[in-house]
Design a protein that fits this description.
By secondary structure, the chain is of the alpha/beta class. Helix content is 28%, strand content 21%.
């Protein structure tokens, strides 16, 4: 029997794909790899952005934030990322869960700051890619890597992924 597939923000697997050319490896993913096939995904790189690249942030609106340059507000990659999300979402049909990078303007899940007129107005928004996943797959189990350190949250995620996969797969004879 094959393991369920879960998407993982690529930087969490140790790949140097972040805006600063670094990674943010998450040791807890080794525990998940026992149960799941980890599928690396970096929305910004897959959308065509270089490594390194200027840092971006969520800005303009809490409900419909834009991805603009942190240091250069003339940079706006919102359209590029939204186009990428539209193309990528159908490819995620085979996933049974997702582990996202916290506080990322692309991948953060209710942990990303939004700036309006240079001021942080909230720190609990979701990144553009995370929003697209939630909208396209509302029942998909999703967790940020920071919550994997919490045994109860990690156990619940593993159970949710297994349940999600069971619902997607037809019964075996």
């Amino acid at each position: 029997m094959t393991k369920p597939k879960i998407g993982v923000s690529r930087c969490l697997l140790g790949d140097t794909v972040r805006y600063d050319g670094r990674s943010k490896p998450c040791a807890m993913l080794n525990k998940l790899a026992v149960h799941f096939d980890l599928i690396p995904i970096c929305p910004e790189v897959e959308a065509g952005l270089p490594i390194p690249r200027p840092p971006v942030q969520l800005s303009g609106s809490i409900e419909q934030p834009r991805l603009t340059g942190r240091d250069n507000p003339d940079i706006d990659i919102t359209g590029l990322m939204r186009d990428y999300c539209l193309k990528k979402m159908p490819e995620l049909d085979g996933l049974s869960g997702f582990v996202l990078k916290s506080q990322s303007p692309s991948c953060g899940l209710n942990s990303t700051p939004v700036f309006i007129e240079g001021q942080c107005v909230t720190e609990i928004a979701s990144g553009v890619f995370a929003r697209a996943i939630q909208a396209s797959y509302p029942n998909l189990p999703i967790i940020e890597e920071t919550r994997l350190d919490l045994p109860d949250a990690r156990t619940e995620f593993i159970k949710s992924v297994s349940t999600h996969r069971t619902r997607k797969c037809p019964a075996q004879p």
